[in-house]
Specification:
Layout lengths: L2 E7 L3 E8 L4 E8 L2 H8 L6 E7 L4 H10 L4 E4 L15 H14 L4 E2 L4 H35 L9
Parallel strand pairs: 1-4, 4-5
Antiparallel strand pairs: 1-2, 2-3, 5-6
């Protein structure tokens, strides 16, 4: 029987939910973000797991890398493409992890790209540079607007 795993990853803990083909919960528990705690939980299920889904959060690198190194098939959920909470009145970490597993089981998971480790540092630097350029532009425009608002004259900030 194939199993499907969803992990709701947070800064200091993760909720792991494993469901079967009938959408029944086989395992559900919160764990510290420690591979020595998480790996022993998942290893007994490794041969049955079709894959493990982790949401693309700011801290997914370590977990996905370690589980891939341990031989698990990893999937990165695109959070902007998931519309989980529409119509739901109650959600929590366990229902979030279960939802990830459920969507994966149904074949409806919108996946993000798992960038190879070797390329991440360059990608992260380019993203940071892009963010800083946008921030600089916003600051220059703010100064120009402030000057114009208070003096009625335009200002050209060519030096920036």
């Amino acid at each position: 029987m194939e199993l499907y795993c969803g992990i709701d990853l947070h800064s200091n803990n993760s909720v792991i939910v494993i469901i079967n083909e009938d959408d029944e919960v086989v395992y559900k528990m919160k764990h510290c973000n420690d591979l020595q705690e998480i790996l022993p939980v998942l290893l007994p299920f490794r041969n049955q797991l079709k894959g493990i889904v982790v949401e693309s959060t700011y801290n997914w690198y370590w977990l996905v890398d370690c589980l891939m190194d341990a031989g698990f098939k990893m999937h990165l959920a695109n959070p902007s493409a998931i519309k989980q909470h529409e119509g739901l009145k109650h959600t929590d970490d366990k229902s979030d992890a279960r939802f990830l597993a459920h969507v994966f089981r149904l074949g409806l998971l919108q996946e993000g790209y798992i960038c190879p480790k070797e390329q991440r540092s360059v990608r992260d630097l380019l993203r940071k540079r892009s963010q800083l350029v946008r921030q600089k532009t916003a600051n220059v425009l703010s100064i120009q607007n402030l000057f114009t608002r208070n003096t009625g004259d335009g200002i050209q900030l060519k030096e920036f």
